[in-house]
Amino acid sequence: MELAGNGLAKGASVVFRGLRQVYGSTVALEEFSLEVAAGEFLTLLGPSGSGKTTALNALAGFIDATSGHIAIDGVPISDLPTEKRNIGMVFQNYSLFPHLDVLDNIAFPLRMRGLARRPARERAQTALDLVRLAEYGRRMPHQLSGGQKQRVAFARAIVFEPRVLLMDEPLGALDLKLREAMQLEIKQFQRQIGCTVIYVTHDQGEALTLSDRIVVMDKGRVLQVGTPKEIYDAPRTRFVAEFIGVNNVVPVARGADGGWVLDGVGPVAAAVPAESRYAALRPEILRAVPGGTGAVMGTITDVIFLGDVVRYAARCDAGGSLLFAQRREPGGGAHPIGDRVAFDIDPADIVFLPE
Ligand SMILES: Nc1ncnc2c1ncn2[C@@H]1O[C@H](COP(=O)(O)OP(=O)(O)OP(=O)(O)O)[C@@H](O)[C@H]1O
Ligand SMILES: [Mg+2]
Asked: Which pLDDT belongs to residue 257?
Protein backbone atom coordinates (compact mmCIF):
# COMPACT_ATOMS: atom_id res chain seq x y z
CA MET A 1 0.00 0.00 0.00
CA GLU A 2 1.10 3.51 -0.74
CA LEU A 3 -0.52 6.06 1.48
CA ALA A 4 1.78 8.92 0.71
CA GLY A 5 2.95 10.61 -2.43
CA ASN A 6 1.23 8.39 -4.98
CA GLY A 7 -0.01 11.44 -6.87
CA LEU A 8 -3.40 9.84 -7.54
CA ALA A 9 -6.62 11.58 -6.66
CA LYS A 10 -8.48 8.63 -5.23
CA GLY A 11 -11.40 10.50 -3.78
CA ALA A 12 -14.94 9.65 -4.73
CA SER A 13 -17.74 12.06 -5.58
CA VAL A 14 -20.74 12.21 -3.25
CA VAL A 15 -24.28 13.30 -4.08
CA PHE A 16 -27.04 13.98 -1.57
CA ARG A 17 -30.45 14.53 -3.12
CA GLY A 18 -33.55 15.68 -1.26
CA LEU A 19 -32.51 14.17 2.05
CA ARG A 20 -35.03 14.50 4.86
CA GLN A 21 -34.50 13.27 8.39
CA VAL A 22 -37.11 13.64 11.08
CA TYR A 23 -36.77 12.79 14.77
CA GLY A 24 -40.21 12.94 16.35
CA SER A 25 -41.23 16.56 15.86
CA THR A 26 -37.68 17.74 15.00
CA VAL A 27 -36.79 18.11 11.34
CA ALA A 28 -32.99 17.57 11.35
CA LEU A 29 -32.58 17.68 7.55
CA GLU A 30 -34.98 19.19 5.04
CA GLU A 31 -34.52 18.98 1.25
CA PHE A 32 -30.80 18.57 1.84
CA SER A 33 -29.13 18.40 -1.59
CA LEU A 34 -25.43 18.72 -2.28
CA GLU A 35 -22.85 17.58 -4.82
CA VAL A 36 -19.32 16.99 -3.57
CA ALA A 37 -16.61 16.63 -6.22
CA ALA A 38 -14.03 13.83 -6.10
CA GLY A 39 -11.00 14.95 -4.09
CA GLU A 40 -12.73 18.07 -2.79
CA PHE A 41 -12.34 19.47 0.73
CA LEU A 42 -15.87 20.53 1.58
CA THR A 43 -16.96 22.00 4.91
CA LEU A 44 -20.42 21.98 6.44
CA LEU A 45 -20.74 25.11 8.53
CA GLY A 46 -23.73 26.09 10.60
CA PRO A 47 -24.99 26.78 14.10
CA SER A 48 -25.58 24.05 16.65
CA GLY A 49 -28.51 21.85 15.67
CA SER A 50 -28.41 22.81 11.97
CA GLY A 51 -28.07 19.17 10.84
CA LYS A 52 -24.34 18.85 10.10
CA THR A 53 -23.75 15.65 12.06
CA THR A 54 -27.03 14.21 10.80
CA ALA A 55 -25.83 14.64 7.20
CA LEU A 56 -22.57 12.80 7.99
CA ASN A 57 -24.46 10.06 9.84
CA ALA A 58 -26.69 9.49 6.84
CA LEU A 59 -23.68 9.24 4.52
CA ALA A 60 -21.82 6.90 6.88
CA GLY A 61 -24.87 4.69 7.31
CA PHE A 62 -25.37 5.29 11.05
CA ILE A 63 -28.92 6.38 10.33
CA ASP A 64 -31.36 5.64 7.52
CA ALA A 65 -32.61 8.99 6.33
CA THR A 66 -36.40 9.26 6.43
CA SER A 67 -36.35 9.93 2.68
CA GLY A 68 -33.98 11.03 -0.08
CA HIS A 69 -31.04 9.60 -1.93
CA ILE A 70 -27.25 9.38 -1.48
CA ALA A 71 -24.72 8.13 -4.04
CA ILE A 72 -20.96 7.66 -3.94
CA ASP A 73 -19.33 7.86 -7.37
CA GLY A 74 -22.77 7.64 -8.88
CA VAL A 75 -23.70 4.41 -7.08
CA PRO A 76 -26.67 4.56 -4.67
CA ILE A 77 -25.55 3.41 -1.23
CA SER A 78 -28.79 3.05 0.68
CA ASP A 79 -28.50 -0.76 0.68
CA LEU A 80 -24.82 -0.84 1.67
CA PRO A 81 -23.99 -1.41 5.34
CA THR A 82 -21.59 1.07 6.97
CA GLU A 83 -18.49 -1.11 6.63
CA LYS A 84 -19.02 -1.54 2.86
CA ARG A 85 -19.24 2.20 2.18
CA ASN A 86 -15.46 2.66 2.46
CA ILE A 87 -15.74 5.84 4.50
CA GLY A 88 -13.22 6.96 7.12
CA MET A 89 -14.27 8.95 10.15
CA VAL A 90 -12.66 11.25 12.70
CA PHE A 91 -14.58 12.71 15.61
CA GLN A 92 -13.93 15.31 18.26
CA ASN A 93 -13.43 12.74 21.03
CA TYR A 94 -10.73 10.65 19.43
CA SER A 95 -12.23 7.42 20.82
CA LEU A 96 -8.92 5.56 20.83
CA PHE A 97 -9.01 2.20 22.62
CA PRO A 98 -7.18 2.83 25.92
CA HIS A 99 -5.90 -0.75 26.28
CA LEU A 100 -4.39 -0.96 22.76
CA ASP A 101 -1.09 0.62 21.79
CA VAL A 102 -0.99 3.19 18.99
CA LEU A 103 -0.22 0.69 16.22
CA ASP A 104 -3.00 -1.69 17.27
CA ASN A 105 -5.38 1.25 17.45
CA ILE A 106 -4.56 2.25 13.89
CA ALA A 107 -4.58 -1.39 12.72
CA PHE A 108 -8.03 -1.95 14.19
CA PRO A 109 -10.09 -1.17 11.03
CA LEU A 110 -7.84 -3.55 9.05
CA ARG A 111 -8.25 -6.32 11.65
CA MET A 112 -12.02 -5.78 11.41
CA ARG A 113 -11.67 -6.40 7.70
CA GLY A 114 -9.93 -9.71 8.37
CA LEU A 115 -6.26 -8.79 7.97
CA ALA A 116 -3.79 -10.67 10.22
CA ARG A 117 -2.14 -8.69 13.02
CA ARG A 118 1.35 -8.51 11.50
CA PRO A 119 0.49 -7.13 8.06
CA ALA A 120 -2.11 -4.90 9.71
CA ARG A 121 0.54 -3.40 12.00
CA GLU A 122 2.85 -2.91 9.02
CA ARG A 123 0.22 -0.93 7.17
CA ALA A 124 -0.59 0.95 10.37
CA GLN A 125 3.07 1.97 10.55
CA THR A 126 2.83 3.51 7.05
CA ALA A 127 -0.17 5.57 8.19
CA LEU A 128 1.70 6.55 11.35
CA ASP A 129 4.65 7.73 9.22
CA LEU A 130 2.26 9.90 7.22
CA VAL A 131 1.08 11.74 10.34
CA ARG A 132 4.72 12.12 11.39
CA LEU A 133 4.51 9.98 14.53
CA ALA A 134 6.74 7.17 13.20
CA GLU A 135 8.33 6.52 16.61
CA TYR A 136 5.12 6.41 18.63
CA GLY A 137 3.71 3.02 17.60
CA ARG A 138 4.26 1.32 20.94
CA ARG A 139 2.92 4.08 23.15
CA MET A 140 -0.43 3.77 24.86
CA PRO A 141 -3.07 6.47 24.19
CA HIS A 142 -2.72 7.98 27.68
CA GLN A 143 0.94 8.71 26.90
CA LEU A 144 0.01 11.05 24.02
CA SER A 145 -0.82 14.76 23.93
CA GLY A 146 -4.16 15.93 22.58
CA GLY A 147 -2.69 16.81 19.19
CA GLN A 148 -0.91 13.46 18.95
CA LYS A 149 -4.10 11.59 19.80
CA GLN A 150 -5.88 13.48 17.07
CA ARG A 151 -3.19 12.52 14.56
CA VAL A 152 -3.48 8.86 15.60
CA ALA A 153 -7.25 9.05 15.14
CA PHE A 154 -6.62 10.52 11.71
CA ALA A 155 -4.17 7.71 10.83
CA ARG A 156 -6.75 5.13 11.94
CA ALA A 157 -9.40 6.77 9.75
CA ILE A 158 -7.27 6.62 6.60
CA VAL A 159 -5.40 3.32 7.09
CA PHE A 160 -7.84 1.37 4.93
CA GLU A 161 -7.60 4.02 2.22
CA PRO A 162 -11.18 5.29 2.32
CA ARG A 163 -12.35 7.24 -0.69
CA VAL A 164 -14.28 9.64 1.50
CA LEU A 165 -13.17 10.94 4.89
CA LEU A 166 -15.68 12.47 7.29
CA MET A 167 -14.42 14.73 10.05
CA ASP A 168 -16.86 16.01 12.67
CA GLU A 169 -15.31 18.88 14.64
CA PRO A 170 -12.03 16.96 14.86
CA LEU A 171 -10.15 19.90 16.40
CA GLY A 172 -12.87 21.11 18.76
CA ALA A 173 -11.11 19.80 21.87
CA LEU A 174 -7.74 21.42 21.14
CA ASP A 175 -6.52 24.85 22.19
CA LEU A 176 -6.31 27.63 19.61
CA LYS A 177 -2.60 27.38 18.74
CA LEU A 178 -2.66 23.63 18.33
CA ARG A 179 -5.87 23.86 16.36
CA GLU A 180 -4.29 26.23 13.87
CA ALA A 181 -1.23 23.99 13.49
CA MET A 182 -3.45 20.93 13.00
CA GLN A 183 -5.51 22.75 10.37
CA LEU A 184 -2.41 23.07 8.21
CA GLU A 185 -1.52 19.42 8.81
CA ILE A 186 -4.96 18.12 7.90
CA LYS A 187 -4.79 20.05 4.66
CA GLN A 188 -1.35 18.57 3.90
CA PHE A 189 -2.45 15.02 4.72
CA GLN A 190 -5.46 15.38 2.47
CA ARG A 191 -3.30 16.58 -0.44
CA GLN A 192 -1.04 13.57 0.03
CA ILE A 193 -3.86 11.05 0.18
CA GLY A 194 -6.20 12.63 -2.36
CA CYS A 195 -9.40 11.47 -0.69
CA THR A 196 -12.58 13.52 -0.60
CA VAL A 197 -13.10 15.21 2.76
CA ILE A 198 -16.41 16.34 4.24
CA TYR A 199 -15.54 18.37 7.30
CA VAL A 200 -17.84 19.75 9.97
CA THR A 201 -17.15 22.76 12.12
CA HIS A 202 -18.95 25.70 13.63
CA ASP A 203 -15.73 27.70 13.61
CA GLN A 204 -16.06 29.93 10.56
CA GLY A 205 -12.36 30.88 10.56
CA GLU A 206 -11.47 27.20 10.30
CA ALA A 207 -13.91 26.76 7.43
CA LEU A 208 -12.40 29.70 5.53
CA THR A 209 -8.86 28.35 6.07
CA LEU A 210 -9.39 24.73 5.09
CA SER A 211 -12.10 24.45 2.51
CA ASP A 212 -12.29 24.28 -1.26
CA ARG A 213 -15.97 25.04 -0.77
CA ILE A 214 -18.16 25.86 2.22
CA VAL A 215 -21.79 24.84 2.70
CA VAL A 216 -23.62 27.17 5.08
CA MET A 217 -26.52 25.37 6.76
CA ASP A 218 -29.34 26.41 9.03
CA LYS A 219 -32.32 24.43 10.31
CA GLY A 220 -31.47 21.37 8.22
CA ARG A 221 -31.26 23.28 4.95
CA VAL A 222 -28.45 24.39 2.67
CA LEU A 223 -28.45 28.19 2.53
CA GLN A 224 -25.45 28.78 0.29
CA VAL A 225 -22.58 26.81 -1.25
CA GLY A 226 -19.43 28.52 -2.50
CA THR A 227 -15.70 29.01 -2.23
CA PRO A 228 -14.53 30.78 0.94
CA LYS A 229 -14.10 33.98 -1.08
CA GLU A 230 -17.62 33.75 -2.56
CA ILE A 231 -19.19 33.12 0.83
CA TYR A 232 -17.26 35.99 2.42
CA ASP A 233 -17.57 38.55 -0.38
CA ALA A 234 -20.95 37.67 -1.82
CA PRO A 235 -23.29 36.31 0.86
CA ARG A 236 -26.79 35.91 -0.55
CA THR A 237 -28.76 36.30 2.67
CA ARG A 238 -28.52 38.23 5.88
CA PHE A 239 -27.94 34.99 7.81
CA VAL A 240 -24.85 34.11 5.77
CA ALA A 241 -23.57 37.71 5.86
CA GLU A 242 -23.77 37.75 9.66
CA PHE A 243 -22.60 34.18 10.23
CA ILE A 244 -19.32 34.43 8.31
CA GLY A 245 -16.86 37.00 9.63
CA VAL A 246 -17.69 40.36 11.16
CA ASN A 247 -20.22 42.42 9.27
CA ASN A 248 -22.46 45.46 9.54
CA VAL A 249 -25.91 44.52 8.30
CA VAL A 250 -28.39 47.41 8.17
CA PRO A 251 -31.88 47.69 6.68
CA VAL A 252 -32.21 49.72 3.46
CA ALA A 253 -35.31 51.64 2.48
CA ARG A 254 -36.39 54.34 0.08
CA GLY A 255 -36.26 57.82 1.59
CA ALA A 256 -38.89 60.56 1.19
CA ASP A 257 -37.13 61.86 -1.93
CA GLY A 258 -37.17 58.40 -3.59
CA GLY A 259 -33.45 57.82 -3.04
CA TRP A 260 -32.13 54.93 -0.92
CA VAL A 261 -31.19 55.27 2.72
CA LEU A 262 -29.11 52.97 4.94
CA ASP A 263 -31.18 52.93 8.12
CA GLY A 264 -29.43 54.80 10.93
CA VAL A 265 -26.41 55.55 8.72
CA GLY A 266 -27.35 57.87 5.88
CA PRO A 267 -28.18 58.15 2.20
CA VAL A 268 -26.49 55.83 -0.25
CA ALA A 269 -25.63 57.02 -3.73
CA ALA A 270 -25.60 53.60 -5.36
CA ALA A 271 -27.58 51.62 -7.89
CA VAL A 272 -29.55 49.58 -5.37
CA PRO A 273 -31.42 46.50 -6.65
CA ALA A 274 -35.15 47.10 -6.24
CA GLU A 275 -35.82 44.06 -4.02
CA SER A 276 -33.09 44.92 -1.48
CA ARG A 277 -33.96 44.78 2.21
CA TYR A 278 -30.53 44.86 3.82
CA ALA A 279 -27.07 46.19 3.09
CA ALA A 280 -23.94 44.39 4.33
CA LEU A 281 -20.82 46.46 4.87
CA ARG A 282 -17.66 44.68 6.02
CA PRO A 283 -15.68 46.70 8.59
CA GLU A 284 -12.65 46.73 6.28
CA ILE A 285 -14.52 48.50 3.43
CA LEU A 286 -15.46 51.49 5.56
CA ARG A 287 -12.93 54.27 5.22
CA ALA A 288 -13.20 56.42 8.33
CA VAL A 289 -11.52 59.82 8.23
CA PRO A 290 -10.85 61.21 11.73
CA GLY A 291 -11.70 64.88 11.94
CA GLY A 292 -13.20 64.83 8.43
CA THR A 293 -16.61 65.96 7.28
CA GLY A 294 -19.09 64.22 5.02
CA ALA A 295 -22.60 62.89 4.58
CA VAL A 296 -22.10 60.06 7.12
CA MET A 297 -20.63 61.19 10.44
CA GLY A 298 -20.06 59.26 13.65
CA THR A 299 -18.37 59.20 17.05
CA ILE A 300 -16.07 56.39 18.20
CA THR A 301 -17.62 54.44 21.09
CA ASP A 302 -15.34 51.40 21.38
CA VAL A 303 -11.78 50.49 20.47
CA ILE A 304 -10.81 46.86 20.07
CA PHE A 305 -7.08 46.30 19.71
CA LEU A 306 -6.36 43.20 17.60
CA GLY A 307 -2.62 43.70 17.05
CA ASP A 308 -2.17 44.25 13.32
CA VAL A 309 -5.65 45.73 13.03
CA VAL A 310 -7.70 47.98 15.28
CA ARG A 311 -11.45 47.56 15.15
CA TYR A 312 -13.72 50.39 16.20
CA ALA A 313 -17.37 50.80 16.93
CA ALA A 314 -18.92 54.15 16.12
CA ARG A 315 -22.34 55.66 16.72
CA CYS A 316 -23.57 57.43 13.61
CA ASP A 317 -25.20 60.83 13.91
CA ALA A 318 -28.25 59.26 12.23
CA GLY A 319 -28.59 56.87 15.19
CA GLY A 320 -27.20 53.56 13.95
CA SER A 321 -23.84 52.03 14.76
CA LEU A 322 -21.03 50.78 12.54
CA LEU A 323 -17.98 48.62 13.07
CA PHE A 324 -14.95 49.66 11.08
CA ALA A 325 -11.38 48.42 11.00
CA GLN A 326 -8.08 50.05 10.29
CA ARG A 327 -4.71 48.50 9.70
CA ARG A 328 -2.31 49.83 12.33
CA GLU A 329 0.93 51.52 11.31
CA PRO A 330 3.90 49.69 12.89
CA GLY A 331 4.22 51.12 16.42
CA GLY A 332 1.24 53.40 15.82
CA GLY A 333 -1.61 54.04 18.21
CA ALA A 334 -5.38 53.94 17.94
CA HIS A 335 -7.97 56.70 17.72
CA PRO A 336 -9.49 57.36 21.15
CA ILE A 337 -13.12 56.93 22.17
CA GLY A 338 -15.03 60.14 21.52
CA ASP A 339 -13.17 61.07 18.30
CA ARG A 340 -15.34 62.22 15.43
CA VAL A 341 -15.01 60.42 12.11
CA ALA A 342 -16.44 60.90 8.64
CA PHE A 343 -17.26 57.72 6.75
CA ASP A 344 -16.30 57.47 3.14
CA ILE A 345 -18.21 54.45 1.78
CA ASP A 346 -17.63 53.23 -1.75
CA PRO A 347 -21.10 52.05 -2.85
CA ALA A 348 -19.47 49.40 -5.04
CA ASP A 349 -18.29 47.60 -1.87
CA ILE A 350 -21.78 47.32 -0.36
CA VAL A 351 -23.55 43.96 -0.70
CA PHE A 352 -27.33 44.35 -1.02
CA LEU A 353 -29.45 41.47 0.23
CA PRO A 354 -33.05 40.62 -0.61
CA GLU A 355 -33.65 38.69 2.64
N1 LIG B 1 -30.93 10.76 17.71
C2 LIG B 1 -31.64 11.89 17.74
N3 LIG B 1 -32.85 11.93 18.31
C4 LIG B 1 -33.59 13.05 18.32
N5 LIG B 1 -33.18 14.22 17.81
C6 LIG B 1 -31.97 14.27 17.25
C7 LIG B 1 -31.13 13.12 17.18
N8 LIG B 1 -29.97 13.46 16.55
C9 LIG B 1 -30.09 14.77 16.25
N10 LIG B 1 -31.28 15.26 16.65
C11 LIG B 1 -31.77 16.65 16.46
O12 LIG B 1 -31.61 16.98 15.09
C13 LIG B 1 -31.15 18.32 14.94
C14 LIG B 1 -29.83 18.33 14.17
O15 LIG B 1 -28.84 17.74 14.96
P16 LIG B 1 -27.32 17.58 14.51
O17 LIG B 1 -26.64 16.73 15.51
O18 LIG B 1 -27.27 17.13 13.08
O19 LIG B 1 -26.82 19.10 14.59
P20 LIG B 1 -25.35 19.68 14.36
O21 LIG B 1 -25.47 20.69 13.26
O22 LIG B 1 -24.37 18.58 14.21
O23 LIG B 1 -25.12 20.48 15.74
P24 LIG B 1 -23.77 20.66 16.63
O25 LIG B 1 -23.00 21.78 15.99
O26 LIG B 1 -24.31 21.07 17.98
O27 LIG B 1 -23.03 19.36 16.66
C28 LIG B 1 -31.06 18.88 16.35
O29 LIG B 1 -32.23 19.60 16.60
C30 LIG B 1 -30.94 17.65 17.22
O31 LIG B 1 -31.46 17.89 18.50
MG1 LIG C 1 -22.75 17.91 15.37
From this structure: 83
Please state which CATH class domain 247-353 belongs to: mainly beta
Indicate which residue's Cα is closest to atom 25 of ligand 1. Answer: 48
250: confidence class by pLDDT, cuts 50, 70, 90 = very high
Give the model confidence (pLDDT) of 329-345 as tens digits.
Answer: 888 888 999 999 999 98
Nearest Cα residue to atom 16 of ligand 1: 51
Tell me the per-residue pLDDT of 277-330, one tens digit each, with 9 for 90 and over. 999 999 999 999 988 898 899 999 999 999 889 999 999 999 999 999 999 888
pLDDT in the model for residue 200 = 96
Q: Which atom of ligand 1 is nearest to the CA of 55?
A: 18
Give the residues surrounding ligand 1 with Cβ less than 6 Å away. 23, 26, 28, 46, 48-54, 202
Buried b / exposed e over 264-297, threshold 16 CB at 10 Å, is ebbebebebeeebebbbbbbbbbebeeeeeeebb
How many CA atoms within 13 Å lie on the side-chain side of 40?
Answer: 20
CATH class belonging to 14-238: alpha beta
CA-CA distance, 139 to 21, in Å (whole number)? Answer: 41
Q: Report domain extents, the chain.
A: 14-238, 247-353
Residue 96 backbone zone (phi > 0: left; psi -120 to 50: alpha; other: beta): beta
